[in-house]
């Protein structure tokens, strides 16, 4: 009797180990598509877990929306495809794979499979966020170069314990790599010199008469008093953006499939980085404002 109990326990332990190993691979991209209100915590505290830890345990990670789980359970295939179809009009689908690709293969390369597709790609890329300077509650997130501030010269922008998302929603920068200094801090003002090269007679006024250069620049505007009879404080030209490979793993959006090689990734015109484990190695570019 004792032998049978031990034997059953051993089987249970082996089965549990096998299941945990099987489910521990990062989820496929299309499995993480769902309404934010439908997210379920994946057994971890979203406030403390990193993207690497979350995806390593077979969960989805997305820190772009506050007050919802960032580390959450993958959705079922039907639910995720339904969400993808609602998000991407059929005529805007970008084909993923090749003609005649199977559902299994499509899923393995991180794409969505719609068996009912007619006249549009059956296997298509999931929706991705290719923007870096995104609008968060009416605030434009600072560009990477604006957050390149000496840690010991940071100007605090939030209370202790503020989350990265709360910090960025205030238009501030967040970096917790250096202890003993503010982690949420004010960005450097944008370098507007090139954007201030505006024909004096085409300037759009950005301040009242008598405004000081500092007051003008604090509003994100340009100041030049060299030409009389035109606005001295004026709006800059629109910013220019460039495609870059994201350094923050949370911004990586899968562009390949598990085990993809660097050369295969480059052929897709995507970024490639084997580190860290548990996150996409082949991923899309993002847009970053030029400084």
Please provide a written account of the structure:
Keywords: Disulfide bond, Secreted, Signal. Residues 28-75, 79-127, 143-188, 194-237, 243-286 form the P-type domain. 22% of the residues lie in helices and 11% in strands. It has a two-stranded antiparallel sheet. A two-stranded antiparallel ribbon has the order 3-4. A hairpin with a 2-residue loop joins strand 5 (135-136) and strand 6 (139-140). It is α+β, with helices and mostly antiparallel strands and 291 residues long. The radius of gyration is 24 Å and the shape is globular. The chain contains seven helices and 14 strands.
List keywords for this structure.
secreted, 7 helices, 291 residues, globular, P-type domain-containing protein, two-stranded antiparallel sheet, P_trefoil_dom, alpha+beta, disordered N terminus
What's a quick, concise take on this entry?
It contains seven helices and 14 strands. It has 291 residues and is an alpha+beta fold. Residues 1-20 form the signal peptide.
Secondary structure category = alpha+beta
Major sheet attributes = 2 strands, antiparallel
Strand content: 5-15%
What is the CA-CA span between the terminal residues? 74 Å
Proportion of residues in helical segments: 10-25%
SS summary, helix count: 7
Mean pLDDT: 73
